[in-house]
Amino acid sequence: MTVLDEAVSPGEPTDARGRVAELHEIRAQALAGPSEKATEAQHAKGKLTARERIELLLDPGTFQEVEQLRRHRATGFGLEAKKPYSDGVITGWGTVEGRTVFVYAHDFRIFGGALGEAHATKIHKIMDMAIAAGAPLVSLNDGAGARIQEGVSALAGYGGIFQRNTKASGVIPQISVMLGPCAGGAAYSPALTDFVFMVRETSQMFITGPDVVKAVTGEEITQNGLGGADVHAETSGVCHFAYDDEETCIAEVRYLLSLLPQNNRENPPRVDSTDAADRRSDVLLDLVPADGNRPYDMAKVIEEIVDDGEFLEVHERWARNIICALARLDGQVVGIVANQPQSLAGVLDIEASEKAARFVQMCDAFNIPIVTFLDVPGFLPGVDQEHGGIIRHGAKLLYAYCNATVPRISLILRKAYGGAYIVMDSQSIGADLTYAWPTNEIAVMGAEGAANVIFRRQIAEAEDPDAMRARMVKEYKSELMHPYYAAERGLVDDVIDPTETREVLVRSLAMLQTKHADLPSRKHGNPPQ
Ligand SMILES: CC(C)(COP(=O)(O)OP(=O)(O)OC[C@H]1O[C@@H](n2cnc3c(N)ncnc32)[C@H](O)[C@@H]1OP(=O)(O)O)[C@@H](O)C(=O)NCCC(=O)NCCSC(=O)CC(=O)O
């Protein structure tokens, strides 16, 4: 029962002060939520309530709630006797570092955060408002999926969310924060958004839970084993960021928002950098071994080049052979794509291609210039990769780069072989500026492999095949694989001193700031899937 049910007959005459007092009483009831016990149960699970989460996300005192007093009108299964304010989702807007952000947060204490018709239409409204205002939308998800008692109305409610997610895609940043068990419909919407955050132990995402899995396939697995944060951060790639607790997770959402524009018509916010644009880095000469087969940590190279050594890795633990990160160069946000030689030698495989393709696409949608660092031995050969569709997955990355109209700069640190060289933003697919360090080797393949193919007969017929192979490798290297082969042909714009990399990139970005490129008019492309 609520105050309205008990005491108020709408339209009953009463003075303004009486009405205002009544409003405050109703509001207090809506703000308090269902019961102290339900709040304690939520806290006992290591979870915050929806309002506590919103407070952490937004600047203090800026939350403006919408439809706080909304209640469902469903009947049956006892629902008519249970009509809590909010209907299990808190919606509204506020600011993050002074910029408008829209938010909806499931209240697990009400129907387990399950989505019914009124609940869904509240979300639809806030999504429409976010699209119209051109401001990011953050969902704080803690809901049990479709509200079973409301049947098809609940399912249709999800449909309306998915349709809006898709309409908003590439228009406003959409961030899904998973903070509880999210099953079925509750897991599909996040998959349509730009970024998914999860918290270890307390959040899960799956299409069907462990009970259904066991009934259908006979497999036994826990909720976390099936769809916990580590699974989605490392194995499936469904989530981009995973943290140990809600406070850290929500603080990182705020950080991510500080790197994104409000919408696709704006640039990401620029800040004044105290890190000198012309800072030289002698360390870079030692970080990257000249021997192309020796691994090193590309993250350290990025750290050395970007402002204050700070960058936010996206999908840090999935497809570790490629790094995708947001950082700043002289205060300007950039997206960095870089091969990681210390994982699988930095090859491109199915997962790395998918990861980088989505990232490049996101950067392009939100006006974030892309800087690509290459040190790539090629695509990963193998039956698994071929049968898994490396051709179409690799094509996703190619398509994403070819389609990107934001400023694009690539830098070849060491080796860049074959198709992987072309795909990783080579000049031939539209990079605006391409640089190489003097240690670069750009070729169709490594010298050993090349000699074995093109000098096969000479090597086989030689008295000393090994000596002949060694001679041919040397010949191939000196002819084709020296650092200036590409520069002489204009296929890199310059060979640069590695210690000056930061300054060259900052200057290039400044020049490209006013870049404008149009693609031919079309409904949309047909990217490989
Ligand atoms: C989400 C859970 C793991 C959470 O388990 P917990 O033990 O923490 O909590 P709990 O089971 O006590 O649930 C808390 C309260 O929420 C209610 N509740 C839970 N799920 C509900 C749902 N889907 N619809 C309506 N009410 C629901 C419970 O009855 C309970 O109410 P009270 O407090 O009154 O006792 C579990 O509740 C669960 O598995 N729910 C079903 C999930 C599901 O199958 N959803 C449909 C997805 S299909 C879908 O969305 C479309 C599709 O993909 O096809």
Automatic annotation (TrEMBL):
Task: List residues of the CoA carboxyltransferase N-terminal domain.
Answer: 16-272
| Domain CoA carboxyltransferase C-terminal intervals | 276-511
Give a Pfam family name: Carboxyl_trans
Query: At the top level of its lineage, which domain of life is listed?
Result: Bacteria
| InterPro entries given in the database record | AccD/PCCB, AcCoA_carboxyl_beta, ClpP/crotonase-like_dom_sf, COA_CT_C, COA_CT_N
Q: What is this protein called?
A: Acetyl-CoA carboxylase carboxyltransferase component
Supply the source organism for this entry.
Streptomyces pseudovenezuelae
